[in-house]
Design a protein that fits this description.
The chain is mainly alpha-helical and 438 residues long. Helix 2 runs parallel beside helix 4, helix 2 crosses helix 15 and helix 4 crosses helix 5. A two-stranded antiparallel sheet has the order 1-2.
Length: 438
């Protein structure tokens, strides 16, 4: 019995008995499922998709996340896939830029840009060791912090009911969103075990029940959705647009480096060793290839999930087959349109109340990465100027109105691009002092 349980702590061991492996797989699923579907729900609203297409976008994103996870867990060649216990899912890092692309051009341009970004990530994976030096924790932390800040307006808009909704800003929307936020925050700070881990999921469920009493839930999409359906090839089309592709290329470069950090945290926290060069290279190439494939089948951009890295580090459960069980459950959910349809019935104010804490945690994760470096005058200048220029230009996008349209799209649609470029340049050119030496 004990030997069977110990298989949880072996990376390449057999799948342990279900009574040991299933709870751990569910723990990973609960930690990431909301984050995986929320961007698809937000983008479908931004793009004005019909209800069947909204369901398809959620379905495709779930299936592609499952396939991406399996690719990273087991690889397809010795050059592709980290073969480490990591979970992949749709990333919030691309959300602000995807919203701009969807509203300015259309959803097909997102998948064209994602395809290009996947190719960029593959190239970065080939040269991962050399390029890693350009992205110390100070730089990645600044970018992650800026991503979190850039998502706050989206959360507040959703808390008020969603921009353009007839009841935007109503007291009912604010009541439900704040109730959801209180549930999430209470469980985060006072809950333990699965209650704490599933705080967002439980908070959404509580907000959903409350909103149903206000007549804000429409179950008709569930009745009309089919029971089983396979993803389609290029269901939303694929179109290439220069500024969108350039913005996504920068984002994919940043996320490739963040994936290196997540894989390193996985091996150090769960396996007491640093990742090998082959594991890092395979992981980044796998990250690029999985996004290239996702773009072809209508799945939104994915990345490694830091919350699942945290679970691996805290539990020391590194058995890849346990995480594969999580991926299979994710795949099953994606193949059932009725499940995706259920998610589309959740009112926007509920998502707002749940995601505002997620976006706050993203920003604070960035601050933790920044704080890993000494807060010298040099380092605070890099962080402060990068965030100020990135956020400032995106908030006053008309400041670039005299430039070509592609410049506005690349640099004003999301603060992340400017913040990343400024941080990298300043880190290279500013002189290092003793206190700021990394």
């Amino acid at each position: 019995m004990e030997d069977t349980k110990n298989l949880l702590f072996e990376k390449d061991g057999k799948l342990p008995a279900l009574k040991y492996s299933l709870p751990m797989a569910l723990q990973h699923l609960v930690a990431m499922i909301v984050g995986c579907v929320t961007p698809a729900i937000i983008i479908s609203a931004t793009a004005g998709l019909s209800n069947p297409m909204r369901i398809l976008l959620i379905q495709s994103s779930l299936v592609c996340a499952a396939v991406s996870t399996l690719l990273q867990l087991f690889g397809v060649t010795r050059f592709c896939g980290a073969r480490l216990p990591v979970i992949m899912g749709v990333s919030f890092a691309y959300l602000a830029t995807m919203q701009s692309v969807a509203s300015e051009f259309g959803i097909a341009e997102i998948f064209g840009a994602q395809l290009i970004g996947g190719i960029v990530a593959i190239v970065i994976g080939i040269f991962a060791k050399q390029l890693h030096k350009l992205f110390p924790p100070l730089i990645t932390g600044t970018v992650v912090f800026t991503i979190g800040l850039s998502l706050y307006p989206t959360a507040i808009s959703y808390m008020a009911g969603g921009a353009g909704s007839a009841d935007f800003g109503s007291w009912q929307n604010w009541l439900i969103s704040i109730f959801t936020l209180v549930c999430v925050t209470t469980l985060n700070h006072f809950g333990k075990g699965m209650l704490k881990l599933s705080s967002i999921l439980i908070g959404i469920a509580a907000g959903y029940i409350l909103s149903s009493f206000f007549g804000m839930v429409d179950f008709s999409p569930i009745r009309t959705a089919s029971v089983f359906a396979l993803p389609e090839f290029a269901p939303f089309g694929i179109r290439f647009e220069f500024s969108s592709s350039l913005a996504f290329s920068v984002l994919f470069a940043i996320n490739a480096v963040q994936a290196i950090g997540d894989m390193s945290a996985t091996t150090v926290g769960g396996m007491n060793r640093e990742p090998s060069g082959d594991e890092l290279r395979g992981g980044i190439i796998g990250f690029g290839l999985s996004n290239l494939l996702s773009s072809l089948f209508g799945g939104l951009p994915n990345a490694t999930y830091s919350q699942n890295v945290g679970i691996v580090s805290s539990t020391k459960v590194v058995n890849r087959r346990v995480l594969a069980l999580t991926a299979l459950m994710l795949l099953a959910a994606g193949l059932v349109p009725k499940f995706s349809a259920l998610l589309t019935t959740i009112p926007q104010c509920v998502f707002g109340g749940a995601t505002v804490s997620v976006f706050a945690s993203i920003a604070m994760t960035g601050m933790k990465l920044v704080a890993m470096q000494p807060m010298s005058y040099r380092n605070t200048s890099i962080v402060g100027l990068s965030a100020a220029l990135g956020m400032g230009v995106s908030m006053v996008s008309e400041s670039l109105s005299q430039f070509p349209e592609w410049v506005t799209m690349v640099f004003a649609s999301s603060p992340v691009v400017i913040a990343a470029i400024v941080a990298i340049i300043l880190n290279i050119i500013l002189p290092r002092d003793e206190e700021g030496t990394e």
